[in-house]
Design a protein that fits this description.
The complex is a heterotrimer of chains A (473), B (231) and C (209). With 473 residues, chain A is an alpha/beta fold. Chain A has helices spanning 14-21, 25-48, 52-68, 70-83, 94-107, 119-123, 126-132, 142-150, 166-176, 186-202, 229-236, 255-267, 300-304, 320-324, 326-331, 342-353, 371-375, 382-396, 400-413, 416-429, 446-450, 463-472; strands at residues 87-91, 112-115, 136-139, 206-209, 213-215, 220-225, 239-245, 249-250, 275-279, 290-296, 434-435, 438-439. Chain A has a 6-stranded parallel β-sheet with strand order 1-10-7-4-2-3, sandwiched between helices. Chain A has a 4-stranded mixed β-sheet with strand order 8-5-6-9, with helices on both faces. In chain A, strands 11-12 form a two-stranded antiparallel ribbon. In chain A, a hairpin with a 4-residue loop joins strand 5 and strand 6. In chain A, helix 3 packs across helix 12 (255-267) and helix 16 crosses helix 18 (382-396). Chain A is globular, with a radius of gyration of 26 Å. With 231 residues, chain B is α/β, with parallel strands linked by helices. Chain B contains 14 helices and 8 strands. A 4-stranded parallel β-sheet of chain B has the order 2-1-3-4, with helices on both faces. Chain B has a 4-stranded parallel β-sheet with strand order 6-5-7-8, with helices on both faces. The longest helix of chain B has 18 residues, at 176-193. Chain B is globular, with a radius of gyration of 17 Å. Chain B starts with a strand and ends with a helix. In chain C, strands 1-12-7-4-2-3 form a 6-stranded parallel β-sheet, sandwiched between helices. A 4-stranded mixed β-sheet of chain C has the order 8-5-6-9, with helices on both faces. In chain C, strands 10-11 form a two-stranded antiparallel sheet. The radius of gyration of chain C is 20 Å and the shape is globular. The chains are: A alpha/beta (473), B alpha/beta (231), C alpha/beta (209). At the A-B interface, helix 1, helix 15, helix 17, helix 18 and helix 19 of A face helix 1, helix 2, helix 3, helix 4 and helix 9 of B.
């Protein structure tokens, strides 16, 4: 059985996972091409709007405002949904959420449950929980279907099969769907998915979705998608279950006018995604007869309690930061071993999963180049939050030689005399390792540097020695 | 006008030529250069690595060492970025010192309005905008304007120029494999630019890029902006 | 303590001392184009994403031609669709709680819409007169949507303002921007997945009677 909840797997440190990932030329080529395409599209559609920066300001502020009013907004949302015939559940953690979903799905008499692509349900490991309960989850998003058929974890928030190219998907469909004549034309592959899932949609009893947002004042739940699988699930099933992180709520209807501009342009680089579904509870004669909304904490309140980290909860899961990330570009998403990969994952995962959930190496999986913050539609200071998470790791885990060295270096820099003595000492100590002005032995922490780079030796005269000489002259 | 040079610990110790070049450029423009000897490190390394206590102590120290300087100039986009953007948050009482700190190209173009610094050069250069000069400090095209004004500089376009070179301080050793892969992509881009030297505003990134070029046996040299402007 | 109480308590503790700041809304709300400009932009944007746009003075005839060209012989409509829009020479099936399978057996659906947005090439359905329920415009492979020129607004905020009353009334809303599509394979956009693979917009002038 596939472990969708990456966190339940044994944590793997990023540097070692990345070391393997950077040798996977096929994946890296796929990721690079996909990144280039999506970056160009995002830039083009963001540039079309001359109020783009004002939209980002509003997006950041309205998410912050909603977060600061969660105590009032969640009960308001609950009230609106309940009044429209929906049922609202609260789940403290993944386990509780899974229990609720399994209970509702079973009560609805389902054997098979259709799923709209949802990161939140990936996060809580819902598919595994459904399977344990004897229910068959069927992913309906094309890329999620590819991952499910390939028995692989998604590697990107928005395009889960970004690591696979068309030929690999064709081979997978040939093998798993028995379509031997299939070519690798994307159009034909999409048709194959349509044909494969059509009957399941038409007989759907229970469907499960996530939510991109929910408007408290109107009780409206919002799902943004492209393929129509989301509409199929939220419309045709008898029972619809939506699992939503509590941070996704926004206060006002007009908040959507901001998010629905920022999200598609940042995510797929489209002016608007093909389909946006907005519904409140149940509607007689139109859509599901039962609607269950599961409000999930699972670490959100932990992030909320940290005023510095709190803005991470603004995230609208567009993945623009991932597409901009030069580290992700080299490794792809699997190296992170998390549900949320890339820069946002490195700051979101430690908050959601808590201190023991993921390897402390994640916040260090960044050169702090800042490309992520430049594209974030809700202006999350991702590099700043990476540094914040690094601080937590440094304070909570033993840092060994590195910690000792940095603390010592801190003391050296604290005094000019010590600093100058250290410069002279380095020049003396390096002698056995230096030839022709270059360091020749790369030992200890320098081994990593030496794997691809030369290093100049400390020269005979530092700048300050030169300056002192010049002053004397 | 007198300017205080913050040479950075890295250039002081490993790339003193960058500091000497910065002095040459500044003095040629008629500026008086001071070098407060008490200076060591601005704390950027510690800050980025998650050692906030050490970073805060060094930020305070920076503020004290340069308290009397009218203008502080540094040949490093990342140190200038750290001082200007992070130091005021860490130690609010030295915010005014941080605000008087400029990266070299920023000082020349934005503050002094100088583009032609009277240097000459012979060769084909490509310019790599380092991440912190580009995104933290936002120096814009100041370095390129300075380079274009140098007779003899032929500026070649660098493909995917704004992509990080993979240095990232401790990142280069903690995540050596990814750092090296990012470096390889940058070196390929430099090679395809056809330039015989790559120029940037940060001795740290150049240490990494230059070290990579040398390891590859590439004839392309890594040069600091100050070194080109001092020629 | 129930999960509800526990979560609300955690939020209270987490947000102690936090204050709600106002939202700066300096972005563009009202558009600047006149009606012809809006319609022209809407047309370009729908076409950009693979939809077909036709302008018509005689919607009944245009729709009949659209359906004939696409080989659609049986189409579904909402029982309350204006008769002036009904095409001749085609079997029209009123969606009176058709099952998903029955909807799937149709060649297409013909509806009106609540409003449309020029900047994004979006049509909005809120279950109002002539629009039918959500499944009608989802299951059949062809969606022909009649859009009144007066109902085309320029910006997304203008579109959402038009839909606010429906949202407050608890009516389900769907925003449709072109035919269904996917970018899941190498981020190459392919039009036509689970939702209708073909979207035809017929622009009309007068409100249908």
């Amino acid at each position: 059985m596939r472990e969708l909840a990456a966190r339940s797997a044994r944590p793997v440190a990023f540097p070692s996972a990345a070391e393997a990932a950077v040798t996977d030329e096929q994946t890296r080529t796929n990721v690079r091409l996909a990144q280039d395409t999506i970056r160009a599209r995002r830039v083009a559609v963001a540039a079309e709007l001359d109020d783009w920066e004002a939209l980002r300001d509003a997006g950041a502020a309205l998410r912050d405002r909603s977060l600061s009013r969660l105590r009032d907004l969640l009960p308001l949302l609950e009230d609106r949904v309940t009044r429209s015939g929906g049922v609202v559940h609260w789940a403290r953690d993944a386990e509780e959420a899974n229990e609720i979903v399994v209970r509702v799905a079973r009560a609805a008499g389902a054997r098979e449950v259709l799923k709209v692509k949802s990161l939140t349900t990936d996060e809580i490991g819902l598919n595994a929980a459904l399977e344990r309960a004897g229910l068959r989850p069927l992913e309906t998003d094309l890329a999620e279907l590819v991952c499910q058929l390939a028995d692989e974890r998604p590697s990107h928030l928005l395009v889960p099969a970004i690591h696979k190219n068309r030929t690999e998907i064709r081979d997978l469909f040939r093998e798993r769907l028995g379509l031997e004549e299939l070519t690798d034309e994307p159009r034909e592959l999409a048709e194959a998915a349509r044909a494969h899932l059509r009957a399941a949609f038409l007989r759907a009893k229970v469907a499960i979705s996530g939510a991109n947002a929910a408007v408290a004042e109107t009780g409206t739940v919002c799902v943004v998608e492209s393929e129509g699988n989301g509409r199929m699930c939220t419309t045709l099933a008898d029972t619809l279950i939506t699992v939503m992180g509590i941070e996704k709520v926004v206060a006002e209807w007009r908040d959507l006018e901001v998010l629905l501009q920022l999200l598609p342009r940042s995510a797929t680089g489209e002016r608007m995604n093909p389909y946006t579904s907005l519904w409140t509870g149940v509607r007689e004669g139109d859509g599901p007869r039962a609607f269950h909304l599961v409000l999930l904490d699972a670490g959100r309140t932990r992030a909320l309690a940290d005023p510095v980290a709190r803005p991470v909860l603004r995230c609208i899961r567009c993945s623009a930061c991932i597409n901009a990330c030069p580290v992700y570009r080299q490794t792809g998403g699997h190296a992170y071993h998390t549900v949320y990969a890339g820069p946002i994952g490195a700051i979101l995962e430690p908050q959601l999963a808590g201190p023991r959930g993921q390897p402390g190496s994640l916040p260090f999986a960044s050169s702090l180049c800042g490309a992520c913050a430049d594209v974030c539609p809700v202006r999350i200071d991702i590099p700043g939050l990476l540094v914040h998470e690094r601080g937590r790791v440094v304070r909570s885990e033993r840092q060994g030689l590195e910690g000792a060295s940095l603390r010592l270096l801190g003391r050296v820099f604290a005094s000019r005399e010590r600093y100058e003595r250290a410069q002279r000492l380095a020049r003396r100590l390096q002698r056995p390792a230096v030839r022709e002005g270059r360091v020749r032995w790369f030992v200890g922490p320098l081994a990593g540097w030496g794997s691809s780079r030369e290093l100049p030796a400390v020269p005979p005269q530092t700048f300050r020695e030169w300056w002192a000489d010049r002053d004397r002259a | 006008m007198r300017v205080a040079l913050f040479v950075t610990c890295l250039a002081d110790t490993l790339a003193p030529g960058v500091g000497r070049a910065a002095v040459t450029v500044l003095e040629r423009l008629g500026l008086g250069v001071d070098f407060p000897r008490e200076q060591t490190c601005c704390g950027q390394l510690h800050w980025n690595a998650g050692y906030a206590d050490e970073a805060t102590a060094l930020a305070a120290r920076f503020g004290e060492v340069f308290a009397d300087a009218e203008v502080i100039v540094t040949p490093s986009g990342s140190c200038a970025g750290h001082v200007r953007e992070h130091v005021p948050t860490l130690v609010p009482r030295v915010a005014h010192v941080a605000a008087r700190t400029f990266e070299l190209s920023q000082l020349l173009v934005e503050r002094l309005g100088v583009e032609d610094v009277g240097s000459t050069y012979a060769g084909r250069l490509t310019y790599h905008p380092t991440c912190h000069s580009l995104r933290l400090l936002r120096v814009g095209d100041a370095p390129e304007r300075l380079l274009r004004a140098v007779p003899g500089v032929e500026l070649a376009e660098l493909p995917e120029a704004t992509e990080c070179c993979g240095f990232g301080g401790m990142f280069s050793v903690k995540n050596a494999a990814v750092s090296s892969a990012m470096l390889a992509a940058k070196l390929d881009a430099i090679a395809s630019s056809g330039a015989d030297a790559v120029c940037a505003c940060d001795a740290s990134c150049l240490l990494h890029i230059g070290g990579g070029l040398e390891r590859r046996g590439s004839p392309v040299r890594a040069v600091h902006l100050a070194e080109v402007l001092a020629g | 303590m129930t999960a509800r109480e526990e979560i609300l308590r955690r939020i209270n503790v987490a947000l102690a001392g936090a204050t709600a700041q106002p939202v700066p809304r300096a972005y563009r709300v009202a558009g600047e184009l006149d009606r012809d400009g809006r319609v022209a932009l809407f047309r370009r944007r729908v076409e950009d994403y693979g939809g077909v746009v036709l302008e018509s003075a005689a919607p009944g005839e245009t729709i009949a031609a659209v359906l004939a060209e696409r080989g659609a012989r049986r189409i579904g409509v909402s029982p309350d669709l204006d008769e002036a829009l009904l095409p001749v020479g085609v079997e029209v099936v009123a969606d009176d709680r058709l099952t998903p399978r029955q909807l799937d057996a149709l060649d297409g659906a013909l509806t009106t819409c609540a409003a449309a947005c020029a900047e994004t090439g979006t049509i909005a359905l809120d279950g109002g007169p002539g629009q039918g329920r959500r499944a009608l415009t989802l299951v059949p492979d062809l969606h022909v949507c009649v859009v009144r020129r007066d109902d085309v607004v320029e910006t997304v905020p203008e579109l959402l303002a038009r839909l606010e009353a429906s949202a407050r009334a608890g009516r389900p809303i769907v925003l449709v921007s072109g035919p269904s599509a996917t970018s899941d394979i190498e981020l190459t956009r392919v039009e036509g997945v689970h939702g209708p693979r073909r979207l035809v917009v017929v622009l009309v002038d007068r409100p249908p009677a």
